[in-house]
């Protein structure tokens, strides 16, 4: 931020660039790097071959032969994000290569130490998070601007679809992120017309996020998601398959526990909740706040800044303006609908898929992925982030609805 001229005038509170947010991409990393500098070739080589190495059960031996590299030569945020993406994917593959029953207790030093160094530099935990999996894991495949992932895991087209549809949900949120800034400025400037317009834009963005989420059905096979993909998103906190956590060799002699990747790590919904004054149950709030530790610190700071801004709900209530009330309620309603639809997706991709896997009803082709191991059971009733998935999602959806202003 630029130094002021010494006057006491309060600056406009929210500028996207202050929080490493982009006008075009929102929380997504703009145009991520796809190659690390030459010295880090051994990391890139392993990361690019992950699906095959895991399928052939060779990843662990490849990691053991990997040279010990220091993260100190990485320069700038984009290099660090790509390094974190690469090391987090390698780590998940290493941990879960043999399924739930073949876990390890120690992450070897040549992987653990640089992963820890990169994580410290970014302010992220040393595990795969939403930031790695989605925000920093995309590239343009060709001049037609078709999207693809940078690094992959077992799951083929379904994994690619899962990552890219989630990315499209994040992209659809961008006008809503800008609307947050317009709304807070409008409250400070008592500009009801701008506030009304910002709320309409926010509601529209949330509806567009729901439309994007519906594309999951077109690109992701539930059996592949449940039987193949999901385990690689699982962490070592609140996971019965790894009750003691994981020792990061060369970092700590004591095991550490981190939650797996979760949609709750997306900053978007946290930001919308704060703006709209949505108050979740004590248990849900505790989990959501823990998930903020998995966001890049500037994104976390953005949510905190919204939390500290004047209350939108109080402003709308005290304005007595029926148009503002209606626009506010449309935002809350759209957010509740988005959360309802997320429950629909989770039901199809976890509950129904789990029941089919248990009953041995998986159709031929569902388990066609050669790396498919025994379907995971440790997290049947939990999300990969460790939450009790349905009680959490329903509670959060219901408390969102309760945020409406009654006539």
UniProtKB/TrEMBL annotation:
Chain ranges passing through the membrane: none
Gene this chain is encoded by: Ido2
Where is the stretch described as Disordered?
361-380
GO biological process, any: 'de novo' NAD+ biosynthetic process from L-tryptophan
Looking up Pfam families in the UniProt record yields: IDO (PF01231)
> Which keywords does the record carry?
Coiled coil, Dioxygenase, Heme, Immunity, Iron, Metal-binding, Oxidoreductase, Tryptophan catabolism
Q: Which organism does this record belong to?
A: Pandion haliaetus (Osprey)
Which segments of the protein form a coiled coil according to its record? Answer: 188-215
Name-wise, this protein is I23O2 dioxygenase
Q: Which family does it belong to?
A: Belongs to the indoleamine 2,3-dioxygenase family.
User: What does UniProt give as GO cellular component?
Assistant: cytoplasm
